[in-house]
Amino acid sequence: MSIRKQFISIFILFLYTCEWPFNTTPTDKDEIFTLTLTHDIVRLVDTAFVRVSWPGISIEEFSEFTVERMMVGDTTWTLRASLTNQLFTFYDDVVNDDEDFRYRVSIKDIQGNMKWAEGETIIPKTTSLFIPEDYDAIQNAFVSPVIDDGDSIIVAPGVYKGTLSIMGKQVLVQSIGGYEVTVIMASENKRCVNINNGILVGFRLEGGTGGEGANTPGGGVYASGNAVLRNNFIVGNVAPGEGGGVFITGNANLYNNIIVSNVGNPTGGIFIDNATGNIINNTVVGDFTGGVAIRNSTVDFLNNIIFQQEAFDLLVFNDALQSEVAYCRFKEVGPANTLGNISANPLFIDSNTEDFQLHPDSPCVDAGHPGDEFTDRDGSRNDMGVFGGPYGG
What we know:
Elements: H1 3-17, E1 36-38, E2 48-53, E3 62-71, E4 78-83, E5 90-95, E6 101-109, E7 114-121, E8 128-131, H2 138-143, E9 152-155, E10 158-161, E11 164-166, E12 172-175, E13 182-185, E14 193-195, E15 199-201, E16 204-206, E17 221-223, E18 228-230, E19 233-235, E20 246-250, E21 253-255, E22 258-260, E23 267-275, E24 278-280, E25 283-285, E26 290-295, E27 300-302, E28 305-307, E29 314-316, E30 324-326, E31 348-350, E32 355-358
Parallel strand pairs: 8-9, 9-12, 10-13, 11-14, 12-15, 13-16, 14-17, 15-18, 16-19, 17-20, 18-21, 19-22, 20-23, 21-24, 22-25, 23-26, 24-27, 25-28, 26-29, 27-30
Antiparallel strand pairs: 1-2, 2-5, 3-4, 3-6, 6-7, 31-32
């Protein structure tokens, strides 16, 4: 018989005498290798366990169990454990994300042959985290895998030190008690907030220095992308460059914020650059240089009050003349910007005690944009400044 015929005969004999593709014999040939997934997760905050279990099974020349996992919808398995004890019948897998998972457990012999079973488990979705009940720091909650686009971080009153970076996720970060009792105090040589997505509501943002560098903009806040800041009190921040209180670029938006007593070079309040967003119903007061500057932008700048600036109230560069500046209070209103703009004293109740509500006789009452989308919460025409419009107090 030729060598080739001998090889073919041996190969055919191998196929008929071995179990394929698993060539070792279980103790019970009728055993079915199955997978069971269980957990007691009701609300995932940090970490929890999924129990992956299988029936006891013995094979000749056992090598190991392997436990693998992937998120439902993914295509790549990730190794979670290799178990070399044949008596194991379960594995507790740590999960820190509220995604649904698919598991695969394989039983191998020393030849590398295997049987496997797969299963899928649903993890309840966590839509909100609470500070400080769930996490002691807002930033730690934001970077948690359980926080995804559309989720919320709800913050109790207190002083939270350090820089908050709301970057890349469409998340609502909101205080319970408002800016009177909830403070983000910037760490040394840092801003209070960097934000390029999501919504920040109801914080006092104080003590930012914008970081290092002679011309670094944004002392308190650097807002870009599709960021939204609403109902915040931005005070006592200093920028080496423009925008002591806030630097705005991209499609970032400001609604109903108070920006007061900030320092920039030369714009202390808000510097708007390469921007296309909305700056609506804000109050900008007492910044130790200029109030607001708009450069190379096409923004809607409506219903704002700018008052008591040491230098200019509002500076609009020639490359930003397509921006709509209307129904605002700033000094030196001229023929080129008369669409509802006024220069009269806004008559705050008491700016010395940070009370920027309007006196009933204020010329800014019912003087904002007359459109229905800007109507005050009581149904009346928009009041200029922080307390006007649908987000006003």
